[in-house]
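Page 42, continued from yesterday. The earlier attempt failed because a stray header line got pasted into the input along with the sequence. Redoing it now with the clean sequence only.
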Amino acid sequence: MGKSIKRSVGIRVACAIVAIFLFSGMTTMNILRIEGTQSDSVRATNMLEQVQQAETAHYKWSANLSNALYSGTEFTGSKDHTGCVLGKWLYSEMSLTDSEIEALRTQIEPLHKELHASADVVLGMYENSHSRAQQYYQETIQVNLTNLVGLLDKVVERGGALSDEYIAQMNNTIAFMHISTVVCLILALVALISLVVYVLRYVVKPLVGITHSAQPLQEGRLSLRFDYHSKNELGQLVQTLEESMGRIQEYVEDIDRVMAELAQGNFDVSTSARYIGDFQPIEEALGRFTVSISDAMTSIVQAEQRVSGHAEQLSSGAQALAQGATEQASAVEELYATVDDLSKSAARNVEAAANAQRSAQLTSEQVALSSNQMEQMVSAMDDIADASQQIGKIIATIENIAFQTNILALNAAVEAARAGAAGKGFAVVADEVRNLASKSDEAAKATKGLIENSVQVTQRGSQIVSEVSESLKRAQEMVVESDKAIASITEAVHQEAESLAQVSEGIGQISSVVQTNSASSEESAAVSSELFDQVHVLEDETRKFKLKNGMAGSVR
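This time it went through. Structure tokens are written below.
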């Protein structure tokens, strides 16, 4: 069906409306005609009644006048020709416009006037001559009355004929009204049936088919195929639906392609379909999403590179610190052995005062050596303190990097959650990054605590070493003076023994601290190595992604 549904339905509705209006117009016209005919019939009936009453009244009038002339009774009839029933009819406005009645009325009027006027004439004659008056009554009044009644009979006859005509006309009008009503109703019924059949066949049936064909939309299927083809409005609707579903399917395929590329780590992807109307925000949202993810990954890559460099530096520093602590431990052990020898030597000097001079010289040499070693130890302690401070700065940098990495991981997890199923792979990477940042932060904090303890112990050992160095200097001075005052050798040797005992105790403490520093340095080196390994894992994971600026996920 190629015709317009609107036009076809409009034609049928117009036909139905025309039939209804025709029915209404014919019915109204026939009713008006019937009412007019009925009104004319009523007027004719009223006229007949008036004329018949006039005949009766004038018979009575003539009888009253006859009694007055022949019996001598008083005449009570009307002498005014306009006041009787016939006079009122003659001189009133005629409701019927019939030429024959008008002609009879013209004949009746002078005769009726003369009839009433003759009453005065005959009554005047009666006063003078009864016989003459009676003769005038019979010859003139009776004749006029007979003529008047004859004319009135003709009026009655014509009125009856008119009444019959009106009744016949009314019956014909009623019959015509019935026929026209039936015809108009048939036309209206045909138009309505045609409208209903057309709507059911060319509107409802195709709509049912279109609705059935569109059922796959409820199941999420966009590949619709309609069996209805026409150039009317429904055909245009079907064509519009097919084109719209095809365009939506194209959008879905394009979005699926973009999400597949994102799932594979390619963030340098864009839409290829032409998005129009309300679909343009989808295209813009996809563009913003890819740019945002790419920027986030770029930040992660940059942070990863910084973390990698700092982790390498930290690992190197921790290894160096561990090596230095090992060397310090070895030096302290050697110093301890030297001090132990000095203590034994001092004991021998107490037992052998005779060898005081020679022992003093040996003691002077040993004290000088010990003083030199103590100075070296103080310098080593200062180096350990400086290295510890540098490690503290590196640990602070690692904590800052771990915090930034954790923030980036949280942002990446949020963007992955927004991406839905397509961002699950990226969400796993974000979780690994966040776990790595947490482990790095914990290791850095632990290392920082150990370093702070090491610094404190080192400072305490440095103080002790300084005291030992001062003691050795005093011992050296005492050994130099032993040549001048040999008498005080014994007392000096005792003081030296006591000082060496304190030195031995302090060196023992220093040895413990140095061993603790060595263990802490080794642990820090292990943590740094683990952090460096985790950074490499992060590099391997981020290298899978392709970013908007064309760079890979990571550069080793």
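Notes: The chain is about 85% helix and 0% strand.
Reminder to self: strip header lines before submitting.
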